[in-house]
# Entry
Amino acid sequence: MKYRYPEFIKINNKEYKINTDFRVALECNKIALDDEINDYERALAIIYKLFGEEVLDTERDYEKLLDLAQLYLSCGKEIEKQDEQPDMDYIEDMDYIEASFMSDYRIDLANVKMHWWKFNNLINGLSNSELGNCCVLNRIRNLRNFNTKDIKDPKERAKIEKAKKQVELKRYKKEPTKEQMESAEELLKALGL
# Structure
């Protein structure tokens, strides 16, 4: 039986082993988001992390290697442009991810080597139920996605908004507009706070 997750890439009839451990992909994620390095350095760092030092000698193939790295890091799926803010971040949510793997799968991520694609498949399979039977990561994600506009009780709405603020992703945090600040002040006055 052939392994269902990729282990190698092939360029010009030469195979290169992929460093498939999820920690390497997480490092690549950090590198991709690092504003302190330029695009060329970022590309080389990702290529090196995933495919090793040997591929650095094939400068003419850097563009193809970067395309393959991007395809690998997106688990073989085409990357769609997101209009809305994500509800999870691998870096910021790692504590929640580790706790959820332990509670749902009895997997201690600190002591296991796991393919990046399998890691993502397991994240997608974590318990998530509206009845409350849900891992901590998905409870946080559900709270981040919760729409408070339909809550009639202002105290309950404020309580949930406060909870959402406590778990919002720092990397995607947007400063409130002047109108939002005025609206929040009015709400607090109405609540007597």
